[in-house]
Amino acid sequence: MTAPATPDLRELARQARAAARVVARAPAEVRHRALVAIAGELRARAASILDANAGDVATGQARGLSAAMLDRLRLDPGRLEAVAGAVLAIADQPELVGRVERAEPRADGLELARMRIPLGVIAIVYESRPNVTVDAAALCLKAGNAAILRGGSEAFASNQALGAAIAAGLASAGLPPAAVTLVPSTDRDAIRELVQLDDLIDLCIPRGGEGLIRYVAEHARVPVIKHYKGVCHLYVHAAADLDMALALAENGKVQRPGVCNAIETILVDRAVAPAFVPRLAARFAELGVEVRGDATVRALGGAAIVAATDDDWAAEYLDLIVAVRVVDDLDAALAHIERWGSDHTESIVTADDAAAARFLREVGSSTVMHNASTRFADGGQLGLGAEIGISTTRLHAYGPMGAEGLTTTKFIVRGQGHVRT
Amino acid sequence: MTAPATPDLRELARQARAAARVVARAPAEVRHRALVAIAGELRARAASILDANAGDVATGQARGLSAAMLDRLRLDPGRLEAVAGAVLAIADQPELVGRVERAEPRADGLELARMRIPLGVIAIVYESRPNVTVDAAALCLKAGNAAILRGGSEAFASNQALGAAIAAGLASAGLPPAAVTLVPSTDRDAIRELVQLDDLIDLCIPRGGEGLIRYVAEHARVPVIKHYKGVCHLYVHAAADLDMALALAENGKVQRPGVCNAIETILVDRAVAPAFVPRLAARFAELGVEVRGDATVRALGGAAIVAATDDDWAAEYLDLIVAVRVVDDLDAALAHIERWGSDHTESIVTADDAAAARFLREVGSSTVMHNASTRFADGGQLGLGAEIGISTTRLHAYGPMGAEGLTTTKFIVRGQGHVRT
Fold this sequence. Notes:
Chain A is α/β, with parallel strands linked by helices and 421 residues long.
């Protein structure tokens, strides 16, 4: 399927803005009904969705997409059912819109509070995984927003089929179709045009590789929350339980190496390096993990260890490769993370509570851990329900970002004729 | 005093970034000591600050600045003491940095929480009022940030003198001078260069007129929180207590007409217009307020009322002028505010709780009120302490923005060797 000629994006965004007002004012039960209906439509239309997806996969194969890309693109009955299940889980999350928070009376009887409200129109720009189309639409609706979705060209037919299911679900709840708009163009210029509509769009979330995120940041006039890469660190402190450290290293690196919360660099305190590095090297050799180490690591870990360069400290491998460095102490570990980290997730292994407290406090990344696997840095694991992604932008939402991250608050003031003197 | 040649802004920002790390990690008592010392320096250096300010005022007079501009620029002993007092009040606000929030254990014993942390380096770009230099510096320090301040050319000498007091206060607490950097240039190009340093600056807050804010939004690559204009509405509902409505109209318009939370437009429900408009017109005539009304208002209010045009619905007069329009009902009031409002502050006067609830819920502005004067839309009044301004950007901080708005949160995870399966 080919994309039509460049659409009038300003007109699409204008319609999305009008729809956002309707969604924001719709009762919670209407939005809930829409989400349940979308899940139902995904199930009812499974055959046509999988058919469209098979077409995308075939096109991708013919164009020589990598096996990893094809895997991200591919839907099957199990994956599609998981997508529908996620929509139902989002529908059943607690309602956010109109929630009154931080209520406090003043001494003079003026009542102050904040009310949680939608952001408005949210543009999400992403790449190959078609499930993002449904996750993003569902989270935006849950939070009372309209969504403008611009997926990747390789998933165009899949996204159109998923979009039809979403549209049918919206219609059955009486919500306007523009509440979820799929940009009918996979042209990169469409992204540029979209992110400059700052009178109509309240937020743009780019999700994808470095190239996409840079492109959005460069052209955007709307606020942007970046979902950038994860160069996650595990720091094995001098007072670490080495069995625990080995288990956390293995879990963080091997359980699912292709995701952003996997470990990319392990820092080993010099005090425990002679005891730990040989065990780590042996275990990772068994697991098929390539280790790239500094001189000390290579001396302690054996001939199989590749010499690391500065590029390795910056690398997000997303693969069975890990960089390992020996550091003098906690200060050196903090300095390494400050220099090379990506503000995603870092974990310290230690039995020393003072060292842990300093690490938790001083590391500025969006998720910081003590004696836990970096793999927990995920909205579902951290109690947010489904996530729209992991923000590496400090403003508004930092770290895993769920439906609440797609809202803001306004101030509410109730008086009995109070005037200011 | 003339500004030196364009400084190396990237180098200044790099130093600010290094200083931000020191400020973020400094104990609360060190930042408290710095703020107390800054207040002391402002008092000790009052003579030289007022002298520098007198020079700016004389230059401004020679250049033909308006009386209003000169008033905003002018410091006197009372105003300077108020600035010092505000710094002490900020120092004594509760500590934010490192505060643990939303702690919750998971069933498997993993402990989740969020920790409040500074944003990093904050650039504030503003116009004539020199007190902003001190307020902004104090709020940024309170929240653990470094500040880069770029004030207006008309206040250059005043800002330099205030900056010297701030630098002395920082030094006496052992904090680096780059924790508060005054850009030594009043060139507009310096603003453009500054707001493109997205690898060094975490947030830019423009405070000032429409021209300045547009300029920043157009050139920025760093996140921007706009402090835009306030076209604030008072809606006199059909079920309003008209005595209360009159008092709120007077307080909102007259108490301090030159500020952004003053009323600019009064919407009168058709049901009460015959009873209310004549009283409003008579009272405002006594107070010297020019009323610009639609045809119904003119018919009811008498010959002194000027005919309003669409420009009046959009106007932020900041003066003793008010636009008055009769609307059919609550829906029409909501539509008018949606069309003409600036997301700042709106208030409904009514004894009908259902109408009030709908207004509070459906008006999307950053502060929405019931039976209260719009003049309460202010960080001090709404319990935030001093404010850096009033955000009309929905992201991160919407409405009055205090020290907390200059922070973010990170996720904290504590386990006992927890791995993900």
